[in-house]
Amino acid sequence: MVLFLILVIVAIVLGIIGAAAEGLFYLLIIGIVVFVAALVYLVLHIRRSGRHHRTLR
Length: 57
Prior knowledge:
The chain crosses the membrane at residues 25-44. Keywords: Membrane, Transmembrane, Transmembrane helix. This is Hydrophobic protein. It comes from Streptomyces virginiae (Streptomyces cinnamonensis). The chain is mainly alpha-helical. The chain has one domain (2-49). It is built from 2 helices and no strands. Helix 1 (2-20) runs antiparallel to helix 2. The longest helix has 26 residues, at 25-50. The radius of gyration is 17 Å and the shape is rod-shaped.
């Protein structure tokens, strides 16, 4: 979960810098990609932790 929060913070910072600085539009794109990667990580983490393996007795 810490990794998700770090990725979101990095995405926000890159997005702000990319939107504010002239000529650094590619940072905005990288921020969006990092944010999408964070969402994918969160979905995979929730799916993985949501599974309960039942053993047959």
